[in-house]
Amino acid sequence: MSKGEALAHASDCFACHAVDKKVVGPAYRQVAQRYAGKGKAVVRTLVEKIRKGGKGNWGDIPMTAHPKLSNADLTVMVKWILSLRHGAAVATGDAGTATAGKGAGATHVYKTPDGKSVKTDFAVFTGADQKQVAATVFDGYEQYNSYCFRCHGGDATGGEYAPDLRKSLAGGMTFQQFLSTAMAGRQAKGMPSWAGFFEEKDIRAIYDYIKSRQLELVPVGRPPSVQD
Is 135 a residue whose pLDDT tops 70? Predict the structure, then answer.
C-alpha cells in the first residue's frame, strides 16, 4: 500500500469513496480520469477541495471538510488518487448491493404476521420458518439502538427530533440515498455526518433492519437471532 492510500484509509475517506465504484462520492478512479492531463495546478485545487469540503462538482451531496489534515498529507493523497486513472471501468450503480452480505442481491419472499407476502433484496431471516433474523439484520438492530434511536426513536418507531425512517423507506428512499444521507449528514437539520464512524456495511445493516421493521417482518424489541 502506498503512503497516499494508507493516509486515505487512516482518514475517513473510504467511508464515502472507493477506488472503482461510486459509494457516496465518486470513485477515485473516476476523479483521476476527470482531472487527467490538467497539469500540476490540479493537485493544489483538489487539496483545497478536500480541505474545505463542499458540493456541486459531483452532485448535491456535500463532502465533509477536512481542515485538520496537513497540506503535505493531502498532497500525497491527491497524487495517489490521480495515479489511478488507468484501470477497469468504474461501477456507478447502487452501492452496497453486492457487498451487503449473505443473500444480498437475491429476491426473498416472506410472510408478514397478517399473511401478506413481501419481497426484499436481502435475507431477513436465516430460515424459511422466519424465527431467527439474519446476522446483518441483527447487527443493524444493535447499531440503530445504540446510535440512531436518540433522534429517530427506539426500535425505528419514530422520534421527537427526527423523522420516522420507516416512512422514509416506505416513501421510496433507496439504500444509496440512505447511505448518502447518513454519511454526509444534514447539517441544516442538525444531523451529523457519520462518515469516519460507520462503514458502508454498517449503514447497510441499519438499512436492512429498518426495512425489515417497515415491512412488519421484525417486531419491536430484540429480534431472535442465531446468537441467542
Answer: yes
Per-residue pLDDT tens for 8-40? 988 888 888 889 988 888 999 999 999 998 888
Q: Which residue has the cell 433507496?
A: 174
What is the distance between the alpha carbons of residues 76 and 155, in angstroms, rounded to a whole number?
43
Please give the Cα distance from 78 to 51 (Å, whole number): 11
In the three-class reduction of DSSP (H, G, I as helix; E, B as strand; rest coil), residue 28 is classed as helix
The CA-atom distances, in angstroms, between 137 and each of 97, 126, 134 are 15, 10, 5
Please state the rounded mean pLDDT for residues 44-71.
87
Supply the pLDDT for residue 95. 41
Q: pLDDT over 90 for what percent of the chain?
A: 62
- The burial of 22, by beta-carbon neighbours within 10 Å (0-12 exposed, 13-18 middle, 19 or more buried), is given as buried
Tell me the longest C-alpha to C-alpha distance in the chain. 64
Q: Which uninterrupted H or E stretch holds 117?
A: strand 117-120
* Number of CB atoms found within 10 A of residue 136's CB: 24
Q: Is residue 21 domain-shared with residue 60, that is, in the same domain? A: yes
Domain count, the chain: 2
Q: 34 is in which domain, residue-wise? A: 3-82
Average pLDDT, the chain: 88
Contacts of 11 (CB under 8 A, 6+ apart): 66, 69, 77, 196
CA distance 221 to 145: 10
Q: Indicate whether 115 and 196 sit together in one domain.
A: yes
- Examine the pLDDT at 152 and tell me if it is beyond 90: yes
